[in-house]
Amino acid sequence: MRRGLSATRASGAARVLGLSNTRRAAVLAIVVCALAFTIAVPLRTYVTQRSEVSVEEQKRERLQDEVAQLEERKAELADPAQVEAEARRRLRYVMPGETPYMVQLPEDKQQAQNPGPAQPPAPQGAWYEQLWENLRK
């Protein structure tokens, strides 16, 4: 009996609105699509922003690690003995009265003898003369 009553009400509403079952389904599909499109854009924006936030957090962590390393290096260089050792090692400074010695290892001599690929000599003459010579060959 209930089923018959609700079916009668639904068919009565359909008759009042003048909609058949197909038209009701089409209207329902349009409403569902409109809701889906309304939700899709903010959802896509949310997902995109979440991925950007995670990338930025990774960058921040890397930068914090770099800052920590630089702080350690700054603390090391606060010691005058460390600064002097760096100057001797990197800049090859010596104190007055000291005799500097340069030790050359065999691999240093090989690198000096073989500097790498030879560069071709610079061309002589104007560009149009070079072009003409290349065309004649």
What does the model show?
The longest helix is centred in the middle third of the chain and has 57 residues. With 137 residues, the protein is an all-alpha fold. The model has no long low-confidence stretch (mean pLDDT 82). It contains 5 helices and no strands. It is flat and about 110 Å long.
How many beta-strand elements? 0
Beta content comes to under 5%
Largest sheet: none
Shape type? flat
Q: Estimate percent helicity.
A: over 70%
Q: Radius of gyration from the CA trace?
A: 41 Å
Order of helices and strands: HHHHH
Mean pLDDT over all positions: 82
N/C terminus separation: 105 Å
The stretches of 5 or more residues where confidence is low (pLDDT under 50) are none
Short recap of the structure:
This protein has helices at residues 2-17, 21-77, 80-90, 106-113, 127-136.
Top keywords for this entry?
137 residues, single chain
Outline the secondary-structure elements.
Blueprint: H1 2-17, H2 21-77, H3 80-90, H4 106-113, H5 127-136
